[in-house]
Each structure stands twice: as C-alpha cells, then as structure tokens.
C-alpha cells in the first residue's frame, strides 16, 4: 500500500505487515516497524501529521507517534468487533477526533476515539449490512458509509444520526468514496465498474 497525505510523510506497507514511514521528498526513514500487524487493512494520518493509526486483519488498532517513532497506544475492540476503516477528522482548530468503522454481529458501527487519551468516547450502529467503504468530509461535519449491498449512508458526525440513505446507489459492493473539498458532494465507486456523484445539498432538501 502507498499513501501520500497532505503532510510531509507518505506511508508504505509491504505484504509482510511491516510499517514504514518516510519523509517526503527526502525519503528519510521516520518509522520502520516489523510485524506491526499480520496484514494491514487500513491506516490514516492525523491532520497535524504527528500520528498514524493502523488497523490489522485482527486484534486492536495501533497508534504511532511519528515524532518519537514509537507505538503509544492500542485501540481495543469489542469481542464481536472487526475494525475495518479508520479516519481522523478536525473538529475545530485545536481538536481532532478519530473514527473507526467496525463490523459487528448485528451490523456495522462507527466508534469515536479521543485523540489525547486514546480512549473510546462513543459507538453508534449505523447499518445492518457490512461496511465496504468509509469517508469523512473535509469540514468534519459528515461521515459516509458504503455497504456490500451498494447502499450509501450519510451520517451527521455531531449527532451520529443518519442524515440520508441512497439505496442501491451501486449494483455491486461500494469500494471507495470521497467527499468533495467543500463537502457538498460525494464521489463513490463500485466493483460493478460504476461511479457516481451524490450531491449532499440535494439530499438534504429532498430527504432521500
């Protein structure tokens, strides 16, 4: 995997589960951790570039301090949880939050974490199907979930209430999604080779 965020650290992961972080463009090694996970499923940088959160195919998530190049916290999961996606979000100028989309026996939920204490502060079930894609808007106000049934769900991050649902937005599994920079539209794609743009403003107005 390869990720190039807006901060100075791109991220590389190889198939053996080793984590490697390099500064860009000097390619100076910032972090090299053997067997960080058996297999890495997802990862994200904090908005300030100080932290990296990684999720494996099993077990807890891990928080890495890129200043000290060490793991500083473990994010435990419930017995029936499987962590699927992680995304940081800037709630205001000083505060940021971490969201983890997790799959449970009874459906999929979004778990919220405090990024100072790295403690869980909330969890809310969003859909009954498994989550196959997850995104957070640039302004931090909206979350989006894609499901294996092809549905798109928009969630208000403040209340954790479902704001809108687009049933069968795609005929196949939603594989990726991303909000526009102004948070007024959501681009999604599916394994059925389709892509669509969902306008958030129209969804609010029409109550889709």
UniProtKB/TrEMBL annotation:
Q: Name one GO cellular component term.
A: endoplasmic reticulum membrane
Main subcellular location = endoplasmic reticulum
Q: How does it sit in the membrane?
A: Single-pass membrane protein
Annotated keywords: Endoplasmic reticulum, ER-Golgi transport, Membrane, Protein transport, Repeat, Transmembrane, Transmembrane helix, Transport, WD repeat
Choose any GO biological process term that the UniProt entry carries and state it: vesicle-mediated transport
List residue spans for each WD repeat. Answer: 40-74
**SUPFAM superfamilies listed in its UniProt record:** Quinoprotein alcohol dehydrogenase-like
Provide an example Pfam family for this protein. Answer: WD40
- GO terms for MF: guanyl-nucleotide exchange factor activity
Q: Where in the cell is it found?
A: Endoplasmic reticulum membrane
PANTHER family per the record?
PROLACTIN REGULATORY ELEMENT BINDING PROTEIN, PROLACTIN REGULATORY ELEMENT-BINDING PROTEIN
The protein's name is SEC12-like protein 2
Organism, as annotated: Vitis vinifera
> Organism classification, top ranks?
Eukaryota, Viridiplantae, Streptophyta, Embryophyta, Tracheophyta
- The record's gene field reads STL2P_0
């Amino acid at each position: 995997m390869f990720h190039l965020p807006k901060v100075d650290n791109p991220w590389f992961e190889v198939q053996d589960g080793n984590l490697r972080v390099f500064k860009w463009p000097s390619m100076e090694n910032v972090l090299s951790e053997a067997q960080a996970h058996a297999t890495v499923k997802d990862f994200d940088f904090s908005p300030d570039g100080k932290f990296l959160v990684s999720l494996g195919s099993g077990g807890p998530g891990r928080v890495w301090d890129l200043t000290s190049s060490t793991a500083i916290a473990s994010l435990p999961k419930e017995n029936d949880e499987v962590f699927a996606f992680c995304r940081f979000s800037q709630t205001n100028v000083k505060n940021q939050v971490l969201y983890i989309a997790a799959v449970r026996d009874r459906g999929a939920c979004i778990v919220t974490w405090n990024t100072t204490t790295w403690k869980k502060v909330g969890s809310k079930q969003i859909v009954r199907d498994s989550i196959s894609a997850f995104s957070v808007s640039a302004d931090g106000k909206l979350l989006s979930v894609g499901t294996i049934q092809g549905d798109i769900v928009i969630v208000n991050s403040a209340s954790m209430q479902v704001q809108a649902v687009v049933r069968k937005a795609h005929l196949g599994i939603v594989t990726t999604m991303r909000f526009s920079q102004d948070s007024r539209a959501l681009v999604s794609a599916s394994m059925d080779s389709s892509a669509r743009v969902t306008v958030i403003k129209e969804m609010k107005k029409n109550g889709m």
